[in-house]
Specification:
Order of helices and strands: EHEHEEEHEHEE
CATH architecture: 3-Layer(aba) Sandwich
Distance between the termini: 8 Å
Number of strands: 8
CATH topology: Rossmann fold
Radius of gyration: 15 Å
Structural class: alpha/beta
Strand content: 15-25%
Helix content: 25-40%
Strand order of the largest sheet: 3-4-2-5-6-1-7-8
Number of domains: 1
CATH class: Alpha Beta
Number of helices: 4
């Protein structure tokens, strides 16, 4: 069963944190699927990812292209891992179904800690997923560096 990592963004915006997490997933050898909720949001993120975490290049595509299956990083509205992603990332309140989380090596949920509605939605996702037996870890950057603040092991009977 895949683990779910919650990333509470408080010190840097999504466009800075996400490329670092994508690069870390790439170093682990994983393909990545980033699920958003709006096409214009994915197009904006597409432009940001061309720069990468340290002004480097992050090869990626937006779902619907001719080479979706070959993309190491795919931006998606559907959330279908047509690129055989082992790492799923949900942004701006997007969610994956339990079967996708189970099949993935890791699922990351990134949320803006400066938006009360985003924090509440993440709390609800945490409760829902841990109630279903998923292992979950909560990471915060309140001190400036990512720190593990809470974790719940996978349920033994899941």
């Amino acid at each position: 069963m895949g683990a779910v990592y919650f990333y509470h963004l408080t010190r840097e915006p999504l466009e800075h944190a996400l490329p670092r997490l994508v690069e870390a997933a790439g170093r682990a050898g994983w393909r990545v699927l980033i699920k958003g909720r709006a096409r214009d949001q994915l197009e904006w993120l597409d432009q940001k990812l061309w720069l990468g975490a340290d002004e480097g290049f992050l090869a990626h595509g937006i779902e619907g292209g001719a080479h979706d299956a070959d993309q190491p990083v795919l931006l998606s509205l559907s959330g279908k891992p047509v690129n055989r992603a082992e790492c799923l990332m949900a942004i701006e309140g997007a969610a994956f179904d339990p079967a996708q989380i189970t099949a993935a090596a890791r699922t990351c949920i990134l949320f803006n800690g400066n938006e009360p509605a985003a924090v509440q939605a993440a709390r609800e996702q945490w409760k829902d997923l841990t109630d279903q037996g998923f292992e979950a870890k909560y990471w915060s950057q309140e001190t400036g560096k990512w720190a593990l603040k809470a974790e719940r092991p996978a349920a033994a009977d899941a």
